[in-house]
Amino acid sequence: MDYLIGETLIYLILAAIIGAAIAWLLRGVGCRNSENKLKAELEQTRSAVETAETKGRSLESALNELRAEMDSESRKLEARIRGLEIENGKLQETLNELEPLPGKVQERDTIIGHWERDFQNLQHQSESEIAKLQDKIAGLESLQAELENSQKAYTKLSAEFQALQTVAHQENQKAQQISTLQNEIKQLQSVSAKIKERDTTVEHLQSQLRSQAKTKDEEIARLQKDLQTQHRSRRKKIDALAERLTKIEHLPQTLAERQQTIIRLQEQLGKVAQQKNQELSVLRAKIKTLEPFKAAAQEHSREVEQLKQQLAAGAAKPGKRPRKKQLYTPPKEKDDLKLIYGIGPVMERTLNKLGVTSFRQIAKFSRKDIELVAGALQSFPDRIARDDWVGGAKKEYRKKYGKAI
């Protein structure tokens, strides 16, 4: 920027000197060639000044555009930060409402902590980028201030140039200063060469400025791309959090359904337990009714053991085996006495040897017959009564013969 200001000042001084020289030459006599030459140089100087002004305006326009772009990017970044803060506030409110849910508080706090740290990092990055952009804007504002100063200097020099023209017109009689002015023109030519060098330097600086602006544009584009990537990542995390929050919201309903299922199963279990208790009561009652039969079975087992011992003793001494005495004359009919409860195969054979072979005989047993048969069987008399041989014989007789005794 200093080069531009220096260049502008040099062009203005050159224009003022050339204008004064032309004024003197125009008033001179016999200096038409010098006048034309000075006019041409004045035109070149004016075109150079116009070129410098055009460059200054273009630079000012580029500066304004760059400032507008930076302001726009800054506003976009601030809007995105505000949007993220609003989303953060909404999520915070939602999570505060869901805090009473058991078993999910610690996981939620961990997720929110990671998310807040990521958000803070993104905010710090955005603040640093905004600070950089503000620094750039401050630098551009300083350039604008310098440009304004140069414009003020240009105005001042224009006023001085007009004053010099006035003085030149008033002092047109000083012809002897023409030679001095010619010498100054030669010096100005050397100055013009220096100005060209400075033009080259200015062009080089402009190219550097353009490259730097391009680099900054690329950097801004990269930052925008990174910001968009981070925003998409944050959006995915927010969607994941929203999905988890939805699942958490459905937990009370699921728990209520499971509680209802448990209550229903408890009711079913109570009914089953009641049924089982009833069945146990029935079984206990049956067991109580079967207890007499159990005692009878035990007694029967003892009798069987006695009979086995007797049979074993008889097998050991076949010559001395006692022979059962026949108590009754066997009838013509012969029934299956094993159908009567309490009479097995061994007992049936023993009864047959005693002459008892039919249901009718046992059905007509008297108390004396029961004691007689029990004595022959070497058993307790109450067994026949307890097992109800008489009733069983009547029942089997009725089944077989179709009539009662």
Describe the protein.
The chain has 405 residues and is mostly helical. The protein has two domains: 2-251; 324-401, no CATH class. Helices cover 84% and strands 0% of the residues. The chain is built from nine helices and no strands. The protein has helices at 2-27, 32-97, 105-170, 177-316, 345-353, 359-363, 367-377, 381-386, 389-401. Helix 1 (2-27) packs parallel to helix 3 and helix 3 packs antiparallel against helix 4 (177-316). The protein is rod-shaped and about 195 Å long. Residues 316-322 have low confidence and may be disordered.
How would a crystallographer describe the biggest sheet?
Answer: none
Strand content: under 5%
Q: Secondary-structure element order, as H and E? A: HHHHHHHHH
Number of strands: 0
Shape: rod-shaped
Q: What distance lies between the first and last C-alpha atoms, to the nearest angstrom? A: 146 Å
- Give the helix/strand class: mainly alpha
- Estimate the mean pLDDT confidence: 76
Count of DSSP-assigned helices: 9
Low-confidence stretches: 316-322
Q: How many domain modules?
A: 2
Roughly how many Å is the radius of gyration?
66 Å
Helix content: over 70%
Sum this structure up briefly:
By secondary structure, the protein is mostly helical. The chain has nine helices and no strands. It has helices at 2-27, 32-97, 105-170, 177-316, 345-353, 359-363, 367-377, 381-386, 389-401.
Observed structural traits:
405 residues, 2 domains, rod-shaped
Question: What's the SSE blueprint?
Answer:
Layout: H1 2-27, H2 32-97, H3 105-170, H4 177-316, H5 345-353, H6 359-363, H7 367-377, H8 381-386, H9 389-401
Helix pairs in contact: 1-2, 1-3, 1-4, 2-3, 3-4
